[in-house]
Fold each of these.
Amino acid sequence: MTVAVDTTLSVRDLQVRFATPRGPLDAVRGVSFDLRPGEVLGLVGESGSGKSVTLRALLRLHRPPTQVSGEVRWNGQNLLALPEARLRDVRGGQIGMIFQEPMTALNPVLTVGEQIGENLREHARLTGRAARERAAELLELVGIPAPAARLRDYPHQFSGGMRQRAMIAIALASQPRVLLADEPTTALDVTIQDQILRLLLRLRDQMGMSLILVTHDLGVVAQTCDRVAVMYAGKLVETAPVLDLFRSPKHAYTLGLLRSLPEGGDRRVPLQPIPGAPPNLLALGDACPFVPRCTYATLKCQVGEPPLEEVAPGRFSACVHHAELPRPEVRA
Ligand SMILES: Nc1ncnc2c1ncn2[C@@H]1O[C@H](COP(=O)(O)OP(=O)(O)OP(=O)(O)O)[C@@H](O)[C@H]1O
């Protein structure tokens, strides 16, 4: 008998509240989206917008007193309500995660081979020689030369780019259906960044997994993603297929992000940030939180925070001026 597995990850009204000395801080304020099988979803936004906190919440990596609510539906269950023992099968198993700085995710006292082996044992029930062979295959798959020998090396014996690949190999050992990637290439130089992104896309094609890619870099989004979710002050303010977003953004914040892209998408030129600072999450008012920085803001924008609504087929925006925004002069 085959059991149908629903591999759409459905996030509904996700909220994350931190307890801080200055009071409760709502870092994620009602985020909802679906990640379809085989899809690459880019999660973009400035520093502090809530991208990493969102990603960690999907796998329930926050600990009390941090409060997480909403639903993360996966394979017929709500991950936010699952007993810890059952969640462990999902976390690092069906859903893998890779981080910006592999040294914080890798165990410094275990060899890379041992770390891949742990995942193979726990999630793929492979041990002994079969596990060693599979581990070498995984290192080869992520483009690490002389994989059998490198299994005996510790993380500090790898260069930055190779460490990133090793972390991906560990995450892939469980054959995840979904990979959550938090700025997986930010610390790397552009050539290695391109190689790793290409690798992730190849793995998506080969293994059919879907991917959430958190990034600051719209160049990376253009190169990699099928769909984009733009985050501002703990909310999604726009979601769209990638080309549509680049051609005709439907939120003034997205337009600002695109205008801050260097001419011709040259990533060696530093980005021009949007004037003004992101809002203080401890002191949000009732208006659209982008108002103080928005050149299109009118009185309408002061009347409550606009909800994310479908404004064209497949396009969602939380901007009351979505229909009046100009096209940015960027090449997608
Ligand atoms: N443990 C914590 N306690 C209190 N506040 C936190 C904690 N972790 C994150 N925050 C706050 O939550 C907000 C969202 O942070 P988050 O790391 O998700 O942003 P981000 O969009 O991923 O930014 P970056 O791109 O810089 O990683 C920020 O205001 C941050 O200061």
Amino acid sequence: MKPTVGYLGPEGTFTHEAACQMFSDQAVHMMPYPTIPDVLSAVDRGECTHGVIPVENAIEGAVNLTLDWLIHQVDVPIVGELVHPITQCLLVHPAQIDGPKEAWSRIISHPQAVAQCQLHLRHHYPQAQVEFANSTAEAAEKVSRHPDEAWIAIGTRQAAKRYGLHILAADVQDFQNNYTRFIAVGAPLPERRIPPGQWKTSLCVTLASDFPGALHQVLATFAWRKINLTKIESRPTKTGLGNYYFIIDAEMEREHVLLKGAIAEIEAFGCQVRVLGSYPCYRSQSVQSLSR
Ligand SMILES: O=C(O)C(=O)Cc1ccccc1
């Protein structure tokens, strides 16, 4: 049976682009879901073999919904990562393009997309009210259903094509080098033709309570083994103010003797360690050619 890949849809999201790249070597069935929790739940209950969701953006930072669902709500391993470039476009209904600039009354998009363009929007469309959508393509689809409204969706070039919209402006994010890290969760990924750039293991560490310097000791455990950490993020445990999980990405395979030793040592001084996944990391084809 063909693998089924759930992704944050509908068709034409950045996540859709990332999912197509991640599974480009393989015949798969792509299945859009309206929200990140819907993707993760579908994988958790076995409706999909894999799921693809955003986890971090270079401008806006962590996608907290993804982290919180991975920690609290589901038990699905991270099995791969793709870094994908983000080009934000302003998409409008073709019936509206002749109006004055001041007439645009509403800007609709995913909160991450709005945040990535906030300076541009304040400067060019201060009069427009902002409406959040579950995804950029959901916003594009909504604009396409309202030809009589002077609304702008922020989204992909693909969404413009798919929903018959006009691109009013492209590359409107406030900073260049706008990339998002997407993760695949679920069953192990089949080997790809391109070799991965690196291998990472994501850990969720709960510190021992009443242990001054516990975080310092956790970090020292990695440091003296020369294990490179690519990210550390804290998220509330949701049990009370001041209680955190630390999500730590280490640039090493889970089975490596040094990482196994580090995890054992951290556990030995009273912290809990949950391995969220150990996985190959890829860059989008277009990113590879940009960075050459
Ligand atoms: O809404 C989308 O298109 C997504 O895939 C989520 C997202 C939004 C903005 C930047 C990266 C990912």
